[in-house]
Amino acid sequence: MKQTNIIRLILLLLLLLMMGAPAAEAGCRDRPEPGVDWSKCDKKRKILREQDLSGARLERTDLSSSDLENTRLNGANLLRANLAGARLRGADLEGAILTKARGDRTDFEGANLTGANLAKSEMPRANFAGARLSGADLSKAEMGRAVMTDATLDGAKLQYAYLARAIFAGAALKDADFEGAYLLRTHFEGADLSQVKGLTQAQLDLACGDAKTKLPEGLSRPTAWPCAPED
Q1: pLDDT tens digits for 95-128?
Q2: Fewer beta carbons within 10 Å, N or C terminal of the chain?
Q3: What is the DSSP-derived secondary structure letter of residue 44?
Q4: What's the whole-model pTM score?
Q5: Distance CA 56, CA 182 (A)
């Protein structure tokens, strides 16, 4: 009797495995298209440039070192996705969810991240040069040494973000909120800070700027500016 029950249990487990495996594989093998569900899939080192992945489900997807240049990812969910070393130049990520995503040295140059959610993301040394980040949520993001040169960050939320040694030269920062942001040697040379929110003198004293940096009313130019080059 016991042997029969064991055999039935084994058969039941095999049936469940057979039912579950194809479904899990099917999503990862689906062709790139709007709304595709590639969540938790291995898509590293893939050529996906100029594809339409708008509204795609990419939660925890490994897209590291993949080429997504000019790809449409507007409204896509990239929660906790791995984008380390990925190429997203000119990609459309408007309204995309990148909360807690990893983007070490990811290239977002010229990308559209308007209204995107990058809260608590890890983007050290990422390249956002010329990117559009108006209204984006970068609160508590780790963006040490990120390049924001000539990026548009009007209305962006940068509260409590780690921005040490990030470069904001020439960036548009109207109504950007820097409350509690860590700005050790953050570069604001040539940037217009006159209309930012939440910036304090203590933060400014840690940062770097020059004679062309415009300051908010009530804050003064630190005597240490311009910063001495680092070794």
Answers
A1: 999 999 999 999 999 999 999 999 999 999 999 9
A2: C
A3: T
A4: 0.88
A5: 33
